[in-house]
Amino acid sequence: MAEQFVGKASEFKDGDRQIVRIGEHEIGIFRHEGEFYAYSNFCLHQGGPACEGLTIARVEERLRPDKTSMGLHFTNDMNFVCPWHGYEYDMKTGEHVSNRKLKLRKYEVITKGNDVYVVA
Amino acid sequence: MDLISDRGRRVQVEELNTTKLLAHAAKQTRDRKFDDVLIVDVDAHHYENENFGEILPFMENEVLKQLALAARSKGGRGSVLPSVPGYQDMGGRVTRYPLRSSEKTDPSRLRDAQLGERWMDALGVDYSCLFPTGLLNVGLHPQKEMEFELCWAYNRWVTEVALPQTNGRMFTQLCLPFGDPEGTLRCVETFGHRKGVGGWMVTTVRPKMPVYDNAYMKTYRAIEERGQTLAFHSGPSWGDHTFQSCNRFISAHALGFSWYNILHLTNWVVNGMNERFPKLPVLWIEAGLAWIPFVMQRLDHEFMLRPSECPLLKRKPSEYMREMFYSSQPMEIQDMDALECTFRMIDAENSLLYASDYPHWDFDLPSTIWDLPFLNDRARHNILGGTAHKLFKLPPRNEAQKQNLIKYGNYVEC
Amino acid sequence: MSSPKAGKTVKKAPAAKAKTAKPAKPAKSVKAKAPHASVEASAFVGEDKVHFVKALWEGVPSKDAKAGKAKASKAAKADKAPKVEILRKIPAPVRVESRQTAESKEALALVAALEAKFEAGELDVLTPEATQALVGVICRIYGANQESGNKYPLLSGRTAVTGTDAMITCSALLKAVDLQVFELGMWQSWSGV
């Protein structure tokens, strides 16, 4: 495991992404709400490019206190979606949103000044 | 190119490139050395509506042809095929749907063939059975003569225009206009001998479909005599009254695909069709697998109690079911024990046929079969292509494939 | 059916080619720590599923591949740190957001406070005078924006306003400015709104 330079922080706007290959690792690096997140780019389902699809807000169904439904709504939490089949992952944890036990390998991201490194 | 995300956000993406999208699939193909394994995909699709400009002129009846062409002309307000509501693309999450039109191909050759080769090469698929997409709803058309015309035109286009451009990599089970029994037989007799025709497909998305009706017996016999297959291809129909209680697409989709095959397979078996046409290979396509043990148990149970309602049956319904064929996709890989039990119950080693369903949203890679922990090598090879090789007489594409077919007892001269 | 072997696409490698290409791509060892994911067993995901999922992205090593692994790992050690290859850069989604004003922020904060109290059952969280003042200024601002061409829906897609709420409020608005429903209909048909 070594720190690998992947780019300048100033070149990552919020919401930007970069897919890198480091040896045998293929990693998606996201900048979301100021933080960096890095995950394996291999979907846990059938191995699709998990980090290369749509980023989209999580959907929730809101209930009133009497348990009647207010329908579907976007929340402020962000997911990223594998473009092959739609496996949807939590941006902040890499967990599959409907089964939190399934999670993409998360890589540590270190920033030193303006330099961004991924530990892989 | 932009994709629509939540709250009007637009996500800029590159144009679609199937080879790039499926780069990880190509890695699986290399890692597993799929080049050495004959892989036949018995259910893959194209979007034939993109070729309607070429297809519709093949319609026979001048009046119906004029209606169809006018409906599709600029400013035309008609529609050629019935459409059902649905969100196959999951709001654009499955990006190959919205980006499809952005992919570049060589204009001098059929686009569907070029796109087909890209995904087939990535998945390691040697041959794929070309099925339409929108035409799977043709059974919902209220005019049986229009159903016939559309199937006829499509069948002509597939055999005269499309397949000759696929370098032999695609074959077909042509669309039968099942609402018109005479037209159905006419299709078999007209197109049955054409190159690349391995069998026939009946879309099971229909409000009413009596597969046991005497009107179809000549057709079944004609297919059986030709040594071809009869495939029942399922689909969802959210508008069907059965599914109008479903308030989410997932419900109508998950149930619909299995439901229509459950319905028609039950009628097929109970009416003794397997006894009447014992050499006719029947395929049940795109319904998943989990429903099969359910139907086997239900029918066996009632058969023991009500044998006088199905006197043609000499064995349990499940035994006939085991002798038919099932496409693997969408395979429910959730409970491995249940899946293993299903494979045992359907005799998967001899009855299961790999299908990708590409490019639809729930496609399966060959690795979904190859990596199953409970399969032996023979079963892997049979399911991925050996059994289909025997059914459709598709030649191996290299010596290693041929040796594997021989090794597992599947090789037939093609 | 007869499909000639001639029908190959260029990319499909014949068997011989696949063999020569193999050493360049040594398969991973079975024992190798999963490089791409951590998958935990649970009631939902059985042990077999875990192995299966791992196999899907790791590849299934053949005997030949295992033999080749020894050479590959030696070579890997000899290498220095792996290079970073940038495969793709995906730009941030374009945010479609309106200009934020201080008043808008205050209004949103006020609405949040009002909704919290209302949800808690406090129906009189606003006095009639305050309600009238708020509805009045919103009517004028919304109407002026619409007429100036800055058109947007009056309620967001996330609204909890029910059809009944809307009908009660619309009826009360019409009554307050002394309009009948038929006049609304006439105006809509004339103006095309």
Question: What do you see in this structure?
Answer:
- Chain A has 120 residues and is an all-beta fold.
- Chain A is 0% helix and 58% strand.
- Chain A contains no helices and twelve strands.
- Chain A has strands at 3-8, 17-22, 25-32, 35-40, 55-63, 69-81, 88-90, 95-96, 99-104, 106-107, 109-112, 115-119.
- Chain A starts with a strand and ends with a strand.
- With 414 residues, chain B is α/β, with parallel strands linked by helices.
- Helix content of chain B is 42%, strand content 11%.
- Chain B has helices at residues 18-21, 23-31, 52-55, 62-72, 111-123, 144-162, 181-191, 217-226, 249-270, 273-276, 291-305, 317-322, 336-346, 348-351, 367-370, 377-392, 399-407, and strands at residues 2-4, 10-12, 40-45, 127-131, 170-175, 197-203, 229-233, 282-285, 325-327, 352-353.
- In chain B, the strands form two sheets. In chain B, strands 3-4-5-6-7-8-9-10 form an eight-stranded parallel beta sheet.
- In chain B, helix 7 runs parallel beside helix 8 (217-226).
- Chain B starts with a strand and ends in a 7-residue tail after the last helix.
- The relative contact order of chain B is 0.13.
- The mean pLDDT of chain B is 95.
- In chain C, 51% of the residues lie in helices and 5% in strands.
- Chain C is elongated, with a radius of gyration of 34 Å.
- The two termini of chain C are 63 Å apart.
- Chains in contact: A-B, A-C, B-C.
Structurally, how many domains make up the residues of chain A? 1
Radius of gyration of chain C: 34 Å
Low-confidence stretches of chain C: 2-8, 10-35, 40-45, 62-72
Which range best describes the helical content of chain C: under 10%, 10-25%, 25-40%, 40-55%, 55-70% or over 70%? 40-55%
Q: Strand count, sense and closure of the main sheet of chain C?
A: none
* CATH fold descriptor of chain A: Rieske Iron-sulfur Protein
Q: N-to-C terminal Cα separation of chain A, in Å?
A: 5 Å
Helix proportion range of chain A:
under 10%
Identify the CATH class of chain A.
Mainly Beta
The counted number of beta strands of chain A is 12
- The strands making up the biggest β-sheet of chain A line up spatially as 2-3-4-10
Order of helices and strands of chain C: HEHHEHHHH
Total beta strands of chain C: 2
- Content of β-strand of chain C: 5-15%
What is the CATH architecture annotation of chain A?
Answer: 3-layer Sandwich
